[in-house]
Amino acid sequence: MSLRLRGDPKHTLRSGMHTMRDRTLSLTSTLSDDDVHGQFDSIMGPLVWDMGHIANFEEFWLLRELGGRRAHDAARDAMYNPFDNPRWVRGDLPLLDREEATEYLNEVRHDVDALLRRTDIVDGPELARGGFVFEMTIQHEAQHQETILQALNLRSDLAPYALAVARHRPLARPVDDTERSHVEGGEFTMGTDDRAATYDNERPAHQVHVDTFRIDRFPVTNRRYVRFVEAGGYARREFWSTAGWLWRTGVDYDAPQGWHRDALGGWTQLMFGALRTLDPAEPVIHISFWEAEAFARFEGGRLPTEAEWERAARFDPAGRGPRKFPWGSAPPTSAHANLGQHGWGPAPVGSYPLGASACGVEQLLGDTYEWTTSRFLPYPGYSTFPYPEYSEVFFGDEEFRVLRGASWATAPAVARATFRNWDYRKRRQIFAGVRLAWDAA
């Protein structure tokens, strides 16, 4: 059973759903109607589409699939179906406006509260056991909050985003940002059998072998990545794979998203409409898989596989079994990781020693997702539940690579060491960085 369901499980679920809804509404509370209705970039939809989609997803899975209710409006199913309406067409749809979308969210939530009170989450329908479908909608909404933030961060003409102005920055201890951790090879349990609080692509638990390897103790910092940029890394063919160079020569990039040179030749970073001096101690963020791969070659390393990443995050040499979080079984707190949009950007490396894994690897959850070399594939014994469009339809596509960990924008409800993210190798708007690995000497 999920850790979230200890104590009064229904109270915990209701609290989680309302906390998530309050956060969704707060993300748009300081924005104008034009900001909420507009489409900033073709790779991201209007924020108001995400608002309506969150409500429609919750209505479908909770009120209809679990509760047996008829559709509120069948036209909304068509409009908020992400497969029928890819991001670049969403701005042309007859979407609910901000007020209507907010009303839809509130109406659905009112009825969901009543449904939760009468639902048996212990011996009831499979969708409800352990609170699964309620957990699923919580995590779905959390993931769309990250999507909303990605879209906002792409708008270069946005006035400084009010919520992001007051950044929380923990006190970081001085560290060597090139330090590496040694991870013993062997067989370990990858994935999970927890059906209450995880997605189908994280299941089932299975045995995997990895060879001994070394991995960066910390995510790659801006300081390290600047060396690659200033060494002409974006123009040097030797660091890029054939496919990576094809991507590179088709775009006009010579640094990560948001980086700009200042008048003195230093670097600034534009995030959420505010230009700030680039912090060399923060993890690099907003790089594509191709950039991460080229940087790895520049430094003489490589990207880890997702099995190596999970071994570094979950393996316990003391033999107490795989960990749910790098630090153990306790849910994330602000002492463990930079999560939940609290920091409004990555925290300097060395900020979270209490979040270290048993292998001594730090900041595996929070700050930035991390690219791996692995394609997005099902685990042995995989079974789709409850719908193929979350995972199954994406399996095997060569254009995708798995990202592991969590970013500063990830809600704690989603942050766990088994969570698998994936995206196109060319994408940069995601809050993604890199951590290098090396074969054992």
Please, could you describe this protein's structure?
It is globular and about 60 Å long. Strand 6 and strand 7 form a beta hairpin. By secondary structure, it is of the alpha+beta class. The chain folds into two domains: 3-158, Four Helix Bundle (Hemerythrin (Met), subunit A); 166-441, paralog of FGE (formylglycine-generating enzyme), CATH 3.90.1580.10. Helices cover 31% and strands 11% of the residues. The strands form four sheets. It has a four-stranded mixed beta sheet with strand order 10-9-8-11, with helices on one face. The chain has a three-stranded antiparallel beta sheet with strand order 1-4-12, covered by helices on one side.
Descriptors for this entry?
441 residues; Four Helix Bundle (Hemerythrin (Met), subunit A); paralog of FGE (formylglycine-generating enzyme); 2 domains; 4-stranded mixed β-sheet; 3-stranded antiparallel β-sheet; 11 helices; globular; disordered N terminus
Provide the CATH architecture of the largest domain: Alpha-Beta Complex
Q: What is the β-strand count?
A: 12
Instruction: Please tell me what the overall shape is.
Output: globular
CATH fold description of the largest domain: paralog of FGE (formylglycine-generating enzyme)
Q: Considering DSSP H and I runs of 4 or more, what fraction of the residues is helical?
A: 25-40%
Low-confidence stretches: 1-5
Query: What order do the SSEs take from the amino end to the carboxyl end, as H and E?
Result: HHHHHHHEEEEHHEEEHHEEEEE
Give the DSSP E fraction (strand runs of 2 or more residues).
Answer: 5-15%
Look at the structure and give the CATH class of the largest domain: Alpha Beta
The structure class reads alpha+beta
Number of helices: 11
Overall tally of structural domains: 2
- Rg is 21 Å
Largest sheet: 4 strands, mixed
CATH superfamily of the largest domain, by name, is paralog of FGE (formylglycine-generating enzyme)
